[in-house]
Amino acid sequence: MRRRLTYVLLLSLGSAALAASTLPQNPDGGAPSPAQVQSFVARAIDNQHRDDLLLEEFDRVEHTQLRKTSESSVVDDRRWRIVPVGTGLFRIALTPDDKPNDPILYRRQLALIQASLQSAMQPDEYEEQALAKYQKRLEERAEMVTDIGKAFRFTWLGREMRYGRLLAKVQLDPDLSFVPSSRTAEVLPHVRATLWFDESAEQVVHIEAEITSDVYFGAGVFGKLYRGGRFWLDQAEIAPGIWEPVAHEYDFSGRKFLFGFEVHEKTEVSHYRRLGPLPQRLAFIRNELNNAGTNHSGD
Known about the structure:
alpha+beta, 12 strands
């Protein structure tokens, strides 16, 4: 519930940013009207759905650091190569210079990825269940994005310099009339966010979000997230017209059933590489496996 929920939340908020970023410029360069903001929400959601689907075609490198508290030193520092295999994500552990930790294990992992891709293309009964489970997760993610257009009110805050360029800024406040359609969406009425976007590229650049009140799941029986949790996310163009996350950080605490937890995690995402749909992905991995005996870089 913890990491997946917050990651989905941040990515979903990006659809709202896209809603604002597609607004036409007013003749005087001033703020768009509330009606203009709302009229572009549907288009923004379509764009976000497209980027989410295309993300399945890319492998990438994730560098994750964990801390016990938001102010403490790093207690866990790992790098992974992430490969979508049709039923989820396969992780290959990497060294600090993005090489596989163990060449022999690396070949075995490539063989497992190859087998997973083959099974996803020609699934048996067991694989059909795995595909259905993964598809359900993707559908929940898509529903969360759709709910964004209903869950918030948008307030134009102007333009400001950030990351060396002029970005537009919009605030998202909960719409009190919103009724969550899923357990995941129950977090939305408890979140306030600020978004910065590149108007010329029509894409979100940065998101900051905060949990403003405790979030209860199953009336508190299953767990809750405590108020005060903070999250941020950066996005960048990783291929022509495709923007995906390049960094995100979570600092929050809560309870799952009877057990408390804290998450203080920062992740940088880099080396996006488009492998394509399942058949092309399989061909790429098969070729990489054939060459793994002489090249252990994983590139």
